[in-house]
Design brief:
Order of helices and strands: EHEEHEHEHHHHEHEEHE
Structural class: alpha/beta
CATH topology of the largest domain: Rossmann fold
Number of domains: 2
Strand order of the largest sheet: 2-1-3-4-5
Oligomer: single chain
Distance between the termini: 34 Å
Radius of gyration: 18 Å
Number of strands: 9
Bound molecules: flavin mononucleotide, iron/sulfur cluster
Largest sheet: 5 strands, parallel
Shape: globular
CATH architecture of the largest domain: 3-Layer(aba) Sandwich
Length: 255
């Protein structure tokens, strides 16, 4: 396949998707394809270069993906045959996100060439027990991402779809993200543990955290679990104080 340049737009809550995106970039560049990575939360979709091959990489969340990712996809400009591929990372199961994204892209005039789902460690229910298996899962994920990038260049990759009711699962999932139990209650705060470092506010991709004396969480959380996964003291937590968290990279890599 004749691909000369790739601009890969990724969102990564805790680092898995960043690792996968970097592995793909490495393969593209080894094959002489100039590749740039862009964080979805920092880039206006209207600015994408329609003369490059575009990549989208994001985590699966509630069987589809985060509203911030869907907002980026909805905001992509009208194209005239621009090649585009996607990769999602997940703990184990997605329903329909590939089909929904494909149909949105086709309507916008893109040429969807390939989609792949890559298993990485689950960041939603992490545990010390699961942590032991994670290095193996990450290695497998990196291998899968490299093979996928290779197959994109060779033109052997395809955009498989999930045939069962993709739009229904998508609508249910996006509705769940609007519920107060997600928006307001997923992340909890223990003031006693907070050292007021402000990292959580810098990391939040939807600016849901504002630093006053302590961090204050607004009602637009998308549950990407970045803030609590990287909080240095565990002051932000999901279920119980002192719980295990998952993180695949250093926080600076997501800033
Ligand atoms: C709120 C939330 C919902 C998730 N839902 C799913 C899911 O439906 N299916 C799945 O396989 N993994 C699910 N996961 C796990 C992530 O998709 C997986 O760990 C992903 O690789 C995280 O990528 P990241 O580190 O780039 O954020 C979920 C994670 C979170 C935080
Ligand atoms: S990252 Fe943690 S310790 Fe730092 S301000 Fe946020 S809650 Fe407090
Ligand atoms: S508040 Fe935390 S979990 Fe919610 S969107 Fe921001 S960083 Fe993600």
């Amino acid at each position: 396949m004749d691909i000369k340049k790739v601009h890969l737009y990724y969102f990564s809550g805790t680092g898995n998707t960043l690792i996968v995106s970097r592995s793909m970039k490495e393969v593209f560049e080894k094959n002489g394809v100039e590749t740039r990575l862009y964080a979805i939360e920092k880039e206006p979709p209207a600015n994408v270069d329609l003369n490059t091959c575009i990549g989208l990489a994001f985590p699966v969340a509630v069987f589809t993906t985060y509203p911030l990712v869907m907002k980026f996809i909805r905001g992509l400009p009208q194209a005239n045959g621009t090649k585009i591929f996607m990769a999602d990372t997940m703990g184990g199961l997605s329903i329909g996100v590939r089909s929904v994204v494909k149909s949105m892209l086709v309507k916008k005039g893109y040429n969807p060439i390939a989609a792949s789902q890559i298993i990485m460690p689950d960041n939603f229910w992490p545990s010390a027990e699961k942590e032991k298996k994670n290095p193996k899962i990450v290695n497998k994920g990196v291998d899968a991402a490299s093979s996928y990038a290779d197959s994109i260049l060779k033109g052997t990759a395809s955009w498989d779809e999930f045939p069962i009711l993709p739009w229904i699962s998508y609508k249910i999932s996006q509705f769940l993200f609007t519920m107060p139990s997600f928006r307001k209650k997923v992340i909890k705060f223990n003031k006693e543990k907070c050292i007021k470092c402000g990292l959580c506010a810098k990391l939040c991709p939807v600016r849901n955290i504002v630093m006053h004396e302590h961090p204050v969480l607004d009602g637009k959380c998308e549950a990407c679990v970045r803030c609590n996964s990287f909080c240095p003291t565990g002051a932000l937590y999901r279920k119980k104080d002192g719980e295990h968290v998952y993180r695949a990279v250093k926080p600076e890599e997501l800033l």
